[in-house]
Amino acid sequence: MTLPPSLDRSAYLLAARGERPPHTPVWFMRQAGRALPEYRAAREGISMLESCMRPDLVVELTLQPVRRYGVDAAIFFSDIVFPLQAAGFDVEIKPGVGPVVAEPIRDAAGVARVRPVTPSDVSFTTEAVRQLVSELGGTPLIGFAGAPFTVASYLVEGGPSKDFAKTKAMMHGDPSLWHALADRLADVAIAFLSVQVEAGASAIQLFDSWAGGLSPRDYERFVMPHSAKVFDALKQYDVPRVHFGVNTGELLGLMSAAGADVVGVDWRVPLDEAVRRLGTPKPVQGNLDPALLFAGWEAIEPEVDRILAEGASAPGHIFNLGHGVPPNADPDVLQRITKYVQSAHVPA
Ligand code: CP3
């Protein structure tokens, strides 16, 4: 697909392709959300997953942070469990908790409840992406999905988990059941990402937020083949494919090798060290600690400078937080960081 020149040469897409744009692009994971009063007003009385089914609301919630912060990319407003729900799986998002599954998956019958997602299951997604792409003009829209491991962790545990004990028990205790589940979830991710790209999203991000809970050995054996399947399937679209997880310092090389074009880095590993860990140098995204948002500008500014300097060692750098925007963050601070990064001298 040929992109309009303003989009094709946007700072985000240039950096994601390993080129040097005139300024370092910046956006924030979970930039749409409770930190914005206009978000809270628009979402009033509408559940999270219900919101994802209303194209007009999805468009508004996706655009809010672009308007407010002037970030270099929009991320489609949805959730990692939304495609499952749209395909009839019983999952809900509890405010302040996260995805919750009434009947967790523990056996083959459970795995069979995860049925394939078709474009007609998520027709509202196609509609919302099309509308967004036309409204965003030269600002790229990032499509996203949850990676098989992170989505599986919610389905097997029944909700958020700290140790992923049941998920790991399934991996090691019944590897074929685990691989069957992860394979179905790879297909769900492929379907949801393809719908977004076909409708006009110009990059995709695969969130394996909780992969950092695994050893490299387990990651390689149980997770990497399934994430690699997702990246392989998306290759035909020729859009940058971004991969991100929290606490993945030990996994950066493997997550890169799974097929990412851009690797997201949390705040635990400096970007220059992250690039070394990738093996093959690639563009990176990150890595301001979200906790710094509450520390005052005197503390934030030198951190942003450090990240920009270290990011210069990568073939491309997209400025971001090391994880999502906390719900109680101050929007003015995020706006100030955006302007600061966009006007900073790009280190050679
Ligand atoms: O702005 C954006 O980044 C786009 C929207 C987005 C949401 N979820 C909306 C959302 C994205 C990219 C996600 C991905 C997502 N969802 C991930 C991966 C990213 C990450 O943070 O690691 C994960 C792990 C989830 C699962 C999930 N959904 C959690 C843990 C929560 C938080 C629960 C809470 O209330 O604190 C959600 C709910 C959710 N997804 C909200 C939003 C804006 C908050 C719900 C609300 O506003 O009512």
From TrEMBL:
It catalyses: uroporphyrinogen III + 4 H(+) = coproporphyrinogen III + 4 CO2. Substrate binds at R30, Q31, A32, G33, R34, D79, Y154, S209, H323. It is an enzyme of class 4 (lyase). The record marks D79 as: Transition state stabilizer. It is found in: Cytoplasm. CDD domains: URO-D. PROSITE patterns: UROD_1, UROD_2. GO terms for molecular function: uroporphyrinogen decarboxylase activity. Its EC number is 4.1.1.37. The keyword Lyase applies. Residues 25-34, 142-158 form the Uroporphyrinogen decarboxylase (URO-D) domain. InterPro entries: UROD/MetE-like_sf, Uroporphyrinogen_deCO2ase_HemE, Uroporphyrinogen_deCOase. Pathway: Porphyrin-containing compound metabolism; protoporphyrin-IX biosynthesis; coproporphyrinogen-III from 5-aminolevulinate: step 4/4. Its main location: cytoplasm. It comes from the Bacteria. Keywords: Cytoplasm, Decarboxylase, Lyase, Porphyrin biosynthesis. Catalyzes the decarboxylation of four acetate groups of uroporphyrinogen-III to yield coproporphyrinogen-III. Belongs to the uroporphyrinogen decarboxylase family. Homodimer. NCBIfam families: hemE (TIGR01464). This is Uroporphyrinogen decarboxylase. It comes from Kribbella aluminosa.
